[in-house]
Design brief:
about 375 residues; alpha/beta; eight-stranded mixed sheet; four-stranded antiparallel sheet; binds pyridoxal-5'-phosphate
């Protein structure tokens, strides 16, 4: 029986054909018609003016910080419960991440903690250069209070929507809330280009500058002229073609992941000691990953016991993100709260959630977890 992965790529004939068509067109470069079209199509889906297709979500986050002028001496508020790339990029520009706890009802950055921290910092003139929000596991952060307080203090927001393409908050699409939004098309995301990302914004001039910086900051003249330091961050036209084919199936993929989530909820919610990442009423998740929380005392086993039992059947599951304030690499970073994220890490487990997860594999996961309770 083939290994069951947490969130494998879901590709088929349409993607294969799109790649071959791009190959045959000879646009085998980090520019071309599929790159242009992919940018337009993702921007339209995210409800923003423009996007620039990049080599990764990490590159997009890095450029967002550069474009906002964040640098040495700046602090940047970042949620502690996220993938490490969200904070790594802050160090790329010489700034310092400040790690903020999440709210237990959403698992996303706690707006009240952000408000307290901004108020405190405004009093002694230490406002951060930016706040990075993360739409975690496909669920948007709570933007009404977050944007209100960031606007009040004039602090720009960067939205890390790497995991959340297709999600919404009060009817508005993920990616559209900050000065810049970021998507990832890494192999484990809801749609993939194998590796890739996009920076999107309502501000077309900002996206133009991102495109310039991502292309080695080459000036538009015949010879190679450079007035600033740039990066080689553009997405290949071949991969953009793959991304376009994937994007056409985004809604179907969200639908299938939603079904996976609902099936887990139906089958496991009744078990003592098992609960789920809360679904906030303010929006709709793209259900990228389904995460459960296991109370060891009530359930009689912990998340690591469940993970190992699944692993014995060649089924991959993973602990929820280890909070960044517990990561050795960020041992010196200032922390705001942290107990909520730590407790989620202690008890959380991400279950196989792919849009191509078969019904029988889903049943095997459910059966393995239910077996602990009998
Ligand atoms: C929240 C978050 N931010 C950033 C990234 C980085 O994206 P990429 O792998 O495309 O660089 C990821 C995923 O990989 C992520 O989950």
């Amino acid at each position: 029986m083939a290994r069951v992965y947490l969130s494998p790529p879901d590709v088929g004939d349409e993607e294969r054909q799109a790649l071959l068509d791009a190959f045959d067109s000879n646009w085998i470069a980090p520019l071309g018609p599929d790159v242009d079209a992919f940018e337009r199509e993702v921007a339209a889906r995210a409800g923003v003016e423009q996007g620039v297709a990049l080599a990764s979500g990490t590159a997009a986050l890095h450029l967002a910080l550069v474009l906002l002028g964040i640098g040495p001496g700046d602090d940047v508020l970042v949620p502690s419960l996220t993938f490490v790339a969200t904070a790594n990029v802050v160090t790329y520009v010489g700034a310092r991440p400040v790690l903020v706890d999440c709210h237990p009802d959403t698992w996303t950055i706690d707006p009240a903690l952000v408000a307290d921290e901004l108020l405190l910092r405004a009093r002694d003139g230490r406002l951060p250069g930016a706040v990075v929000t993360v739409d975690l596991y496909g669920q948007c952060a709570d933007y009404d209070p977050l944007l209100a307080v960031c606007d009040q203090f004039g602090v720009p927001v960067i939205e890390d929507a790497a995991e959340a393409l297709g999600a919404t908050y009060r009817g508005r699409p993920a990616g559209s809330f900050g000065a810049a939004g970021v998507f990832s098309f890494n192999g484990n995301k809801i749609i993939t280009t194998s590796g890739g990302g996009m920076l999107v914004s309502h501000d077309a001039a900002l996206v133009d500058r991102a495109r310039h910086l991502a292309t080695q900051a080459r000036e538009p003249v015949v010879h190679y002229e450079h007035t600033t330091i740039g990066f080689n961050y553009r997405l290949s036209n071949l991969l953009a073609a793959l991304g376009r084919a994937q994007l056409r199936g985004l809604d179907a993929r969200i639908g299938r992941r939603r079904l996976v989530n609902e099936t887990y909820r139906r089958a496991l919610s009744g078990l003592a000691g098992v609960s789920f990442m809360p679904l906030a009423a303010y929006g709709s998740s793209n259900y990228w990953l389904t995460c459960i929380v296991i109370d060891r005392d009530e359930f009689g086993a912990g998340p690591e016991d469940v993970r190992l039992a699944l692993e014995r059947l060649d089924i991959e599951s993973r602990p929820t993100w280890k909070p960044l304030h517990l990561q050795p690499v960020f041992a010196d970073a200032p922390v705001v709260g942290g107990a909520v994220a730590a407790s989620i890490f202690d008890r959380g487990l991400c279950l196989p959630s792919g849009s191509n997860l078969s019904g029988s594999d889903l049943e095997r996961v459910v059966g393995t977890i239910r077996a602990f309770a009998t």
